[in-house]
Amino acid sequence: MMEQYFTREEALGFDEQDGLRSFRDEFYVKEEQVYLDGNSLGLLSKKAEKSTLDLLESWKEYGIGGWTEGDNSWFTLSESLGEKTAPLVGAKKNEVIVTGSITTNLHQMIASFYQPSNAKTKILADELNFPSDIYALQSQLQLKGYDPEEHLVKVRSSDHQTISLDAIKKAMTDEVALILLPSVLYRSGQLLPMKEIVEYAHKRDIIVGFDLAHSIGAVPHELHDWGVDFAVWCNYKYLNSGPGGTGGLFVHERHHGTVPGLKGWFGSNKERQFDMEHSFTPADGAGAYQIGTPHILSSASLIGSLAIFEDAGMIALREKSLSQTDYMLDLYEKYLSSYGFIVVTPLTHKDRGGHIALEHPEAARICKALKHQQVIPDFRAPNLIRLAPAALYTRYVDVFDAIMILKDIMEQKLYKEYPNTRNVIA
């Protein structure tokens, strides 16, 4: 009998062989729905729910005593979560802290590490970066008296979707003091060569930081060994910590002891914090870059979420992520390539993050048609569909079903029933 390829039965067979398949049971997944938007907001896990309820219970039980009592005392929660996050980014325990939000942390990092001097006054970013990162860079330049129009340099994209290493290198002029780039471009899903960027930049005496929003939890990192100066991220995408969950930051140990640009009480040395002195004594590691009181309730879910990642392991998660996105690309080639889509995500593994991006002039209405049929994609204006299988809870059969539904939508032109405009939340 001839072997069957690209059938639902084949997909079910892949799921039977999946060593991570049991983790799906940890999550609240709607069986009638295919959720492919984990790169925007991950699903709730039972462990995250429990850790949140447990922390609420500690508030109920201890009141203010919860700062020092209970299984996850609040006073050191940010530090303990930082230690648990460190393996995901290839960092030492004291190089990571869970704190603030991604943009607040970025403001802190730029305020701390952007030190213009003489001719080195410019910050290098890229023209495809998420708007919030650019806003923060513009603000920090203005606060130091520089015009962003002149001093914020953006690496240009030749195809409006990806950035080449050569273009990044060419943009590293003698005037650049600091670089901020995304590890994975939020639109196309391109994974940048972080190690090579850092090596080249450091030869030119340039500080390098990365926004890991679209890679942490999907791609293994080695921030310490690569020599990355700083990094920031959110925890609510692949790390499934919930909407508005507390962010995180990394500061390489060679910078420990550098006084933060934005001082805050919780950045104090823990043993000195309640001395109430007006002279700031920073914490020894990344904890020095905390600003305000930890967001305890917004951090609670991460206790459970990180436990799942510890059990699954980033290497295995990355292998499944690449396998599922390969499978999605194969299905696209067989069933969707004649319907006007353009794959803008790099095909090579070393250049690909955790999602596949399809460009189409009718993208907004196609996404609405998909949602109507219980496939949850992500739309990015003006014409991009992002599909993100999350290795912890997405099955191969989910990928197959999503592509078949998308094929039916295109074949029958069902997307024409919807306006080609984005919703309030794309």
Description:
Homodimer. It catalyses: L-kynurenine + H2O = anthranilate + L-alanine + H(+); 3-hydroxy-L-kynurenine + H2O = 3-hydroxyanthranilate + L-alanine + H(+). Belongs to the kynureninase family. The chain is α/β, with parallel strands linked by helices and 426 residues long. It has 2 domains: 130 residues, Aspartate Aminotransferase, domain 1 (Alpha-Beta Complex); 262 residues, Type I PLP-dependent aspartate aminotransferase-like (Major domain) (Aspartate Aminotransferase, domain 2, 3-Layer(aba) Sandwich), CATH 3.40.640.10. 36% of the residues lie in helices and 12% in strands. It has 13 helices and 13 strands. Helix 8 links the parallel strand 5 and strand 6. The chain starts with 7 loop residues before the first helix and ends in a 15-residue tail after the last helix.
Task: Quickly give the structural class.
Answer: alpha/beta
Quote the distance from N terminus to C terminus: 46 Å
What form results from the Cα inertia axes? globular
Q: How many beta-strand elements?
A: 13
Helix segment tally:
13
Q: Indicate the percent of residues in helices.
A: 25-40%
* Cross-sheet strand order for the largest sheet: 2-8-7-6-5-3-4
- Give me the strand/helix succession: HEHHEHEHHEHEHEHEEHHEEHEEEH
Compute the number of structural domains. Answer: 2
Subunit arrangement of the protein: single chain
Indicate the CATH topology of the largest domain: Aspartate Aminotransferase, domain 2
Our Rg estimate from Cα atoms comes to 22 Å
Strand composition percent: 5-15%
Indicate the CATH architecture of the largest domain: 3-Layer(aba) Sandwich
Which residues form runs of ≥5 with pLDDT under 50? none
Mean pLDDT: 96
| Biggest beta-sheet profile | 7 strands, mixed
Please identify which CATH superfamily of the largest domain we are dealing with: Type I PLP-dependent aspartate aminotransferase-like (Major domain)
CATH class placement of the largest domain: Alpha Beta
